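Final paragraph of the annual report: two paired records, presented back to back.
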Amino acid sequence: MKTIRVVAAVIQRKHNGSKQIFATQRGYGEFEGGWEFPGGKIEAGETPQKALIREIKEELDADIQEAVMMLEKHMAQKG
């Protein structure tokens, strides 16, 4: 079974006394129009934190200085 390592960011901000969660809408592929958290595959030799910083820059053109690992989940993928 092939292992694919990925990261995703859950970005939250407080605004006018309420919490808001940031998500992006896919513009292509099988899940076009669906919502997802920004992120992607971890490249060879890359830490999850560095991958997340890179993915945020690529997808959102935003610079972050720190990424904190909150959860690690292992899932089996067929094929």
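The closing record of the year follows.
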Amino acid sequence: MTDATYTHHSGEQTLAMLPELTEVYLAARKDDPHRDDPLFSREQFTARTQAQAHSPGFDLVTVHVAEALAGFSFGFRF
């Protein structure tokens, strides 16, 4: 079994990782029947993420397996 590493990231760190996050986002949506909806485009994902990353309370959690980004989740604390 391969170990997974979970890490919290600030908004600033998220912006530095945005190109890599975008590739994972698009790869995860490649078989989604709504993938051609402009809401889910590369441009909209990056614009939303940039806006959210600047907001108070934003947090990103990434998971790396064998040093490769395997997934992520982000949002705001309640």
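Residues 37 and 44 are 10 Å apart (CA to CA). This concludes the annual technical report; the extension proposal builds directly on these records.
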